[in-house]
Design a protein that fits this description.
mainly alpha; two-stranded parallel ribbon; 6 helices
């Protein structure tokens, strides 16, 4: 598994462009509106991945997506919310990206362990 820690100001689909080659084999990719870009959708389809990404509000012709499947994204958002409950991560105390990523991994491990 490859993890990418990007700048806070980097747009979602620019970060995804850096990770496209490392995507695992999957049938469907759930993404929010930040990933709505034609080149990203075409790249996913070329790899055999079905994009479940709602269209941005400024798109002239909206692209349909599976709303029932998209509702499952709340699990991902809930995990980010639990990780951000850790003050060290929420306020980004660590200046070094390696240390910050280590804190995220520790928080995710503890959250997983407590939910067992």
């Amino acid at each position: 598994m490859i993890l990418l820690l990007s700048e806070g100001q980097m747009s979602d689909y620019k970060g995804a462009a850096l990770m496209v080659d490392a995507f695992p084999k999957a049938k469907i990719l759930l993404g929010d509106r930040g990933y709505d870009a034609d080149w990203f959708r075409h790249t996913l389809i070329e790899r055999g991945i079905i994009p479940c990404i709602p269209s941005k509000t400024n798109r002239k012709i909206p692209i349909p997506h599976d709303r029932a499947l998209y509702r499952q994204r709340h699990r991902i958002e809930n995990m980010f919310g639990k990780i951000k409950d850790w003050r060290r991560i929420h306020t980004r105390y660590d200046r070094c990206a390696h240390t910050f990523m280590s804190a995220i991994c520790i928080a995710a491990t503890v959250i997983f362990w407590l939910n067992q």
